[in-house]
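Sorry to interrupt, but I need a hand with the structure work. Could you write out one complete protein record for me, on any chain you like? Just paste the record in under my message, thanks.

. . .
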Amino acid sequence: AAPAAPTAAEILLVVNHLEELANVWQWVADNCARKGDTLSIWHVAGPSVSGMPSLPTAIANQLRGRGLGNVSYRQLYSSTGDPRDLGEQVCRLAAGNPAVKLVVLLNYSRRGLLQEALHGSVSSHLSRYCSKPLLLLQLPE
């Protein structure tokens, strides 16, 4: 019997700021995805965000052109801005989807060391509680 073809998987790319998406999606597509995989971009946002931004069409088209099966966008929102709440949303939604093979998070903080020490971060929550493999990416300064 012929070996079974690998099934398409979903990769979650979690970003805090959409403008930084352009810096990381190409690396994720080149290093984490196979043809036919789904890339889901999840934007975690706090109470300062107004409106519902959409995934830039050009990026979605380029990813589809590279053979990814689908590109989707979802905004996760916390009215309090609590990173634990946002991290828990990511953990719960990723765990509930058996197709998810990898969670990729842009690992950075603009909140400052004191806020980070008092309230934690999305990345620290995911590194402790995410049931899926987790890749933390650090953008160069």
